[in-house]
Every structure is written in structure tokens, then in C-alpha cells.
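User: Show me an example of a complex going from sequences to C-alpha cells.

Assistant: Sure. Here are the input components:
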Amino acid sequence: MRFLEKLAQAIDKNRSLLCVGLDPDPGLMPPGLGVFEFNRAIIDATADLVCAYKPNIAFYEALGRDGWDTLKLTRDYIAADIPVIVDAKRGDIGNTARAYARGLFDYFRFDATTASPYLGLDSLEPFIAYHDRGVFILCRTSNAGAADFQSLSCETETGVKALFEVVAGKVALWNKHGNLGLVVGATYPEELRLIRQGYPEMPLLIPGVGTQGGELADTVRFGVDAGRCKTIINSSRQVLYASKGKDFAAAARIAAGELRGRINEILAGSPS
Amino acid sequence: MRFLEKLAQAIDKNRSLLCVGLDPDPGLMPPGLGVFEFNRAIIDATADLVCAYKPNIAFYEALGRDGWDTLKLTRDYIAADIPVIVDAKRGDIGNTARAYARGLFDYFRFDATTASPYLGLDSLEPFIAYHDRGVFILCRTSNAGAADFQSLSCETETGVKALFEVVAGKVALWNKHGNLGLVVGATYPEELRLIRQGYPEMPLLIPGVGTQGGELADTVRFGVDAGRCKTIINSSRQVLYASKGKDFAAAARIAAGELRGRINEILAGSPS
């Protein structure tokens, strides 16, 4: 099944646009718990509340060789009907990008990945070539430093545009197989609105609600597509670390349920 | 010891600006050989001819869990006086970048890494914070798609500049601890000249000679710094796969020796 179909089915089944970021940080986790055990408990507690999971590979690389095994165990533990997006932000020249794609798509069997645009189309093609997988290109990221380059005014054939808008336009042009999307942070609502208005059918992965400060109402109103099947709103720390005690999984379930509910309430109050 | 000192000592000891990229691709390696055995033979054959090694992490990720172990074994096998630059091209928001930095600098103990500029300064700070390690920021990459974004004309306070020039300028400003450098591909000699002229003291990592087509004479004349201690010229496939037979290590030694020799000949013919 293609990524977008799988995503739409998961959104429909769980009535959820919420993605939980599986970013295990031993310094924030309940003491004495293994990383896979932590992830398993989070997944068990939230699997009927999410449209996707998004492990950021950095948190597994930080664990050394055990991290690699933990990431594989975690990916394999997630039920086949929930898409898993690896947040890898990869970007390298062609033969190297092919190696990354093999690792992420063949070995780990992730349904989608994030990728960096800086190296251009040929660095993305090895990922795009997997037509049944999704590729979310970084457009406007959620961090404070995003503006350093992403907001630069660039001269284009159709006038001056911010770099992140140029990225969005190129990705839309390159989307010949319908498996591309954009990463646009919740922390920049005006930029999110601009991208959604310009590309109403583009899948958007929106990180940055919760701990990073993105306001949920603006995120939903500005970011969700009309069909409500191509938008993924990610929360990591707000769910994972809702409690640092033994009740962490129950607290994560409550936090995820509240987020899902608030997103759906805001949608119910908006014209679809 | 700080990265640049270690690099300068290795350049001096081996009279070499050549870095060998340790990018093992089982499809190109002699059949029946394990990846670590391949790397070990390449290292044994070239350790007195190089100023650094540069494993690209993608080729290890493509191997799954064994790849992680192989990368650690490879890194640990390289003598302590030869700097090892991991080509990781990482770039993510602060808490995630910290996890990447822990993995690359604490677990693997790499001397330097490459990083992507797209997310801005706060995505680089966790790497920069390791003052004894080097961080090479992607500026103008060696691939054909580089121009898609890196050549965009950007409006700045000091006039219109290509994006890669803006990146170089910001990195120079951010280089408060003297541990930053730039990646500029050998396949774009005019861009390389522009960056070296603009930033004579900036460490440059220059991939793309050999298989990728970068012309060595231009690379050396345009890219090498006056002190000849802050420039790293990388070749991967031309050395690793000089022969696919049982003589691969001897052939790699010959290829590396010829490259080192040609670089030194070109330098000898240039005003220093």
C-alpha cells in the first residue's frame, strides 16, 4: 500500500491527525527503564490515538550500537496499519543517498522519511524512487535558527520569495509520483498558512506543538488540508514525558488523547 | 588536542592533503570480503599517505545493526594521530542535534563531522560546543543538483549573493571557537576559488576529485590555503575501488600515493 493511503486509513480509523514522536531521552525517561521498554509502553498506550509514529533517529544513534537494535525493535513492534515516519533529515549525493535509502526503507522498512533539501533534486531521487514510501522535505523548520537561511529573500523567475517558499515550489514540481510532502513547523503559523494556501494538496508534517511552543489552534486552522487526510501534527515531549513517574504510560495516553481531542474540536469548529 | 592541530600534524607527518573516504559499498568491493576487513586493509595500505579518513555514515547505516559495529571498529582501528571526519551531514533542532553530537563525538569519538546549514545556528551549536572537534558545514556540494538551491541569488545587506556564499559568510561569523570549516566540492572550481579567496583561513573539506569528475589541478590551485594546513582533499571511490580483485589494497595504495604525489607536484609548481 502507498504511504498516503496508509496514512489516510490510519487517520480515519483512529480519528486522529496526531503523530507521536518516539524520541527517547534517557535523561527524561522514568529511571531504570530500558529504551525499548519505554517505547513499547508508549506505543501500547497510544496506538489507537495516533495517525503515525515518528522516531527521530538521533535519539537512537546517541545510544550507540544498542540504539540501532532498539530502533529496529521499535519499528517492528508498531502495528502494520500505522505508518512510521523516520525523522532522519538525510541529504547527500546520489550514491550516498542510495545507501541511506537502503538503510531506512529496506532494512528498517520505514513508511516515510524526512530529508533535507540543501543538496537538491538528485540527493532526493533515491528516496523518491521508492514510490510506495513518503518523503517529507524540510521547508520551514520549527527552531529559532530557522530564519538564518530559510527566510532569506531569493530572486526567482516569479519574483522575490523566501528560501522556504522556493523549496516548497520546487518540491511541488518534483512531486511526479505523489509521494512528497513538506515539513513546516507549528511555531511559525504565518509561514504555515502561506504554504498550505499555496499547496492545498501537499502532505504536511507539522512538528513543534507543545513543548516547542506552537499554538495548536493556529496550527490546525492554518495547516490542515481540506480533505483532512494529508496533515500530520507531531508532538514528542509533551506526550512522552507527561509524567516521569511509574504512571508515564497512562499519563502519555491522557496527553495524547487530549491533543487528539483538541485537534478534532478545533476542526469541528472550522469550515471543512 | 584540537582538531586543527591534529590535522596540521598529520598533513605534516605524511606530507599529504589527501583524505580517503571510507565508503564501503559491498557491490563494488572484492567479493567475499567483510566490510571491516575491507576497511582494515585499506587503512593498512594508506595510513602513511593520508591526512585524514572520512567514513560516510550512510554506507554503514545501509548495513543495518552490523554497520554500526563496523563503523565503531573502523574508527577505533585508525591510529590516534590521524583525524577521522565522519561525513554525517546532520542538521536538526537543538535537543535532537545534541543527541546526534553525543552519538558522533562521545560514542564514536570522531574528530570532526560534516553538518547541514539549513536549520541555522542553533542546530549547529551542539556540535560547535565540542571545542576540540571540527564541524564542516555544507557550503557548495559536489553533486549536479547542488545548484537547485545553493546557487539561488539571495538579497543581503551587502548586496546579492548566492546562497552558498551567504552560508560561508555566516559560518565565518559563527566561528568563535575556531573549530568550523566548509565543504566545497571540487566539481565547481569557480565557486571553490570564490570561497577560498573570501575566506583564506577557513578550513575546507573538498570532496569530488576522481570519480565525481573534479579536476585535481584546479582543486589544488584554487582551494588550498597559503599555509597548506587547512585543506582536505577527499577521494573515495578512486582509491577504494582502484581494483576489485585480490590486489585491491595494493591498488588502493598506488592510487592514494599517486593522488598525494600529484597534489604535492601541483603545490610545488604554485606560489605558496
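The lines above are the inputs; the final block is the predicted structure for all two components together. The first helix of chain B runs from residue 3 to 14.
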